[in-house]
Amino acid sequence: MSDQAETMRPTRTPAFEARLKKRYASERRFKVLGLGAILFSVAVLVFLLINMTVSGLGGFQRTELAVPVDFTQAGLTVPANPVDEREVVQALQRQGLPEVISFSAEQALGEEGAAHVNNEAWRLVGQQIATDPSMLSQRVELWLPTSENLASAYAGDGNAELQPLAQQLADQGLLEDRFDFGFLQRADATDPQLVGIWGALKGSILTMIVTLALAFPIGVLAALYLEEYAPKNRWTDLIEVSINNLAAVPSIIFGLLGLAVFLAIFPGYRSAPLIGGMTLALMTMPVIVIAGRNAIKAVPPSIRDGALAIGASPIQVVFHHVLPLALPGILTGTIIGMARALGETAPLLLIGMRAFVATPPEDFTSNATVLPMQIFLWSDEIDRGFVERTSAAIIVLLVFLLLMNGLAIYLRNRFEKRW
Amino acid sequence: MSDSETQTVDAGVALSNPSGKSLEHETIDVGEPKMRARDVDVFYSDKKAIDSVSIDIHTEFVTAFIGPSGCGKSTFLRALNRMNDTIPSARVTGCIELDGEDIYASGMDVVQLRARVGMVFQKPNPFPKSIYENIAYGPRIHGLVESKTDIDEIVEKSLRRAGLWEEVKDRLEDSGTALSGGQQQRLCIARAIAVEPEVILMDEPCSALDPIATAKIEELIDELRGRYGIVIVTHSMQQAARVSQRTAFFHLGSMVEYGLTSDIFTNPRKKRTQDYITGRYG
Fold it and tell me: Can you give the residue ranges of the ABC transmembrane type-1 domain (chain A) (predicted)?
C-alpha cells in the first residue's frame, strides 16, 4: 500500500518525468546556442586576423633591386663635423650622388636602368653613408627600392612590357621583396614604395595623449563629484541625463563642435594633435563619467562607513578608499572610450586631420594625421602598392590598440583589490 | 554582576518625564556620564524613527540596547556619533552631549567627534589593505604618529588589546580581508581603539559570527570596559545579559525601559519589556 502511495505522489508521475525531460532538453538547446554564438564570433575574429595578417605582411615589404655601386671612382666626400644626417645628404646631393646612383643602375641594367630604380633611392643611400661614411671608399652592392612600375610588374600587375624583365631579374636573384624597416620610420608619400606609417602612428600617439590627459581627470572628477558630493536634485538629474545623451551623440557632431569652438579659439592649429585630442576628449569624457559613476556606486557602503567611523574626512574617504576601489572599473571605461577615440576618423576629418602630411609631427601643434585617417586615405589610392600598405597600416593600428588596452588591463589588475 | 552597585535605578520613572533635564531618580554612585542624551528624536524625512529618548552612557560599564528588529536601536546608536549625517533625509533633534558638549552644535567638528566616538559595525568591514595598514590608517590620518616606530607601537598595542596580536603578529602584511569573520571583527575593534576613542559604539558586532568568535568578542568587550565607554546593540538577550551592566529596551522607536541589566532581565518594570524578554514577541 505504501508503494502505491509513493507512485501516486505528484513528483513521481510519468507526466512529471516527461516535463523534467523537457526542462533538460531546453537547457541543452540553450547551451548549444550559446556555444554556437561563441564559435561564430571566434571564427569571424580568426578570419579577420588571418586575412589581415596574410595581406598585411606584404605591406611591410617592398620590391628592391640589387645594384652594385663603386664609390671609389665617384669622388664623394662627407663634410667634416656635420650637424645632422640631413646636412650630409644635402652635401652628397650637391656632389652628384643621384647621378652616381643612376649611372650605377645603367651599368648594371642597361640604358633603361636608371628608370627602374626609384627616384628617391639616392636619398636612402645618402642616409646610409651618413651613418657609415666608410662606404665611400668601397665597392658595395646596395638593395635599392624599385620604381613603382617595376614593383607592380614584379607583382604580376601593371605594365605588361616590364613583366618579362622583372621575371628575369627575379630569376637572377637581383629583384626581390625585402622587409622594409623604413615603413615604421617614414610618413606619408605619393609613391607607395616610399610611404611610412610612423607619421600617422606618432600623430595617433600624440592625439591619444591629449585625449587621455583631458578626458581622464575631467571624467573622473565629474564622476566623483556627481556621486559623492552633488546633492540629489533636479539639476543633477538634468546633468546626468545630459551626460548620458552626450555619450550617444554621433562622433561627427563632435567634429563640428571642435571646428566651431576649438579652431575658432586656436585658428593656427588646424590639423594639430592638440585640437584633435581636445575634440576626441569631448567624445571620450562621457564614457568615462558613466563608467566611473557605476564603479563608484559599486564600492560597498560598509567601507565608507568604516572610514567615516574612525574619523576620516569626506575627501579622505574618497581618495583613500572609494577611488582606489573604483579605479579598476574606471579604467575599464577608459579603455572602451580610448579604443573608440583611437579608431575615430569622422570628427578629425572636420578639423583638418586628413591633410597629406609628409613628415612625422614634431609636437602637439604640428600638422599631423592619425592611423585610421591614414588607412582611409591609402585605401582611397588607385596604385596597387597602396593596397598592401593599407593592410599593413591596419595591422599597426590593431597592434597599437592591443598594446594600449594591454597596458590598461595590466594597470587595472594591479589596482584590483578584493573585499 | 552588579553586587557592588547596591543602589536601585529608577530610570524608567525618570524617563516617563521627558522634560526632566537629568535622570533624577538615578542614584548610582558613579561619576559624571560620558555621554548624555536628552529628548532625542530622529526623523527619516517625515517619519519619526526615534521618539524622545534620554539616556546616559558611562565609561564604567557596558550599556546594551535590546529590542525587536526595526525598533530604532541602531538608528539611535548612529545618532551618537553622527553617522546619520551620511543619510541626507535623516534629521536629529534634542540634545546629545559628550563630556557636556553638544555634539550637534555648530562648533562640534564631526571628524573629531568620530575620532572620539568610534564605531564597530554589524558586518566586519576591514579595509582591503594589509592588517597593519588597517590599524595604522586612523592614527595616520589624525596625525597622531610621528615615526614608523610610533606606528608599530600603536599597531601592536591595539592588536594586543583586541586579543588578535598572537594570531596575526607574523602576517601583518596579509590582507585584512583574508582573516576569518571573527578575526576581522576583532581587527575592526582594534582599528577603532587605535585612535584612542572615548566611547566605542558596537552595532550588533556578533550577529555575523559563530558562537566561538562571539565568545571571544564578548570577552574582549569585558576587558575593554572601564577604558572606553561601550554601547552595544544586540539582538541576543543572552549576550546583553552576559556583557552589559546597563540595558535599555527599545520598542517602536521609543525607549521603554532602562536600568541595571540584572533588573531588566529578572524584574522588568514594564509589561512590554517582560513580554519581550520572555519571548512573547521579537
Answer: 201-408
